[in-house]
Write a structure and sequence with these properties.
This protein is mainly α and 103 residues long. The chain has a domain at 47-103. The protein is 74% helix and 0% strand. Helix 3 packs antiparallel against helix 4. The model has no long low-confidence stretch (mean pLDDT 80).
Length: 103
Amino acid sequence: MDQTQELKSLIKQAASSSSAPASSSQRLAARSPFYDAATEIGRGVERTTALLVKLAKLVNQQGLFDDPTEEINNMVFRIKQDIDALNKKCDEVRERRSEFPCK
């Protein structure tokens, strides 16, 4: 028994009954504050990770006559600042979690 026509009609019915896909502006408006905070934290982690990779390369290529100690210290300082900022952002999100609606 061929049910191709029945399947096609069900697909047409489902397509006509579903609403149009949300535009990008509608999706942006529907984002939660938690999503925005999590995105910001994720980007911060990504930046800090990139700095850590650069630091590792810099430390590994350190030669006898090429001593980048000052550059290493500056990079370590920036990484510490970034980690502190990320921790503060995580603490803010934790404190405000009751404001974030659960879906």
